[in-house]
Each structure stands twice: as C-alpha cells, then as structure tokens.
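User:
Can I borrow your eye for a moment on a structure tokenisation matter? Would you put together a sequence-and-structure record for a protein of your own picking? Please set it down just below, with no commentary around it:
AI:
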Amino acid sequence: MRGLAVMFGTGLLLPIRSAIAQGLDAVQLTGAALFCDPLREEVAALAETIIPETDTPGAREAGVAEFIEFMLQEWYPVEDRERFLEGMTILRQHCGRQYQEYFPTLNQATQIQVVTAMQDGTIEQFADGGREFFDHIKQLTIFGYYTSEVGMTVERHYLPVPGDYDGAYPYDKVRTLFTS
C-alpha cells in the first residue's frame, strides 16, 4: 500500500493517507451499508471504466465499488463523504440530461466519453467541470484495485521472494509488475 502512496505523492487524499498510516487491511473488509443498489452499480460502472477488464480482471471483479463504499463509510470525514456523494449525484444528473440514461446503462464508448469529459473538466454541472471528482474516484479506484486480491495476485503477480537482484536489468524487458 505504501507504494501506492508514493505513486500519488502529496496529491493523495487525506482519508486514504490515514488508512495507510493506520494499517488498513483492504483484503479483510467487513462491508458497509452506505450505498443503495443503484448507487453501488453506478460506482462499479465508473470504476470499471477507469480499470476495465482486459486480459486481467477489471475493477468490478476486484470489488472496487465495495472498497469505495467501505472507505467512505469507515475512513472519510462526513464532509468528504458528502462531497463524493454529491459528485455521484451531479454525474447522474449529467447523464440523465445529456443521454436520458444513467451511467451504468450507457454503452462503453459513451462511458469513456463521460469519464474523459470529467478528466478534462468540461462537464458544466460540476463547478470545476468534474476534475476534482474524477481525481477522487480515480484515486479510490486505483487504491481499491491494487490492494485487492485480484490486483495483488493477478495483475501484479505476487512473488514472496522474487529471485536474484539485477540492478542493470533493462526496463523495456519488464513485462509485469511484482509485489511482495
């Protein structure tokens, strides 16, 4: 988990920093009851758009929506939790107005278009165009994915003892990331 903290640096959200500092065991989540089923599906679809299933499992299979729900319920201050939920409401309203559908029912190309618009800050319903909310959901998605069993064992190939150290190994020959 500390490697993820280094990756985000000072931009890492405070609740995630607190969870890392206090030794969150992301594999042993107890579950929370913050999301209703439609909201959980929206979060799952958004996370799956950020980390889709390819030759490895995506965010949905890794349980990222449940992780995000847990983080919001157990680690976030009320104001931050409400800001996240407000972002989800704005996204739902945008999709309803723009496409007459909700995010999970949009086709994949349109979902990518919506996420890209948030990243670029061009969704008018958000005060900043959606950039802050996109950064928020992206960090939670990446953190949830790479601390899940799928992220640690399938995506990154867990090796308790990875073998000999070769400080001069050419980076372009690295085919996968390893974790221990």
Summary: The chain has a mean pLDDT of 83. The first helix runs from residue 2 to 8. Residues 2-173 form one domain.
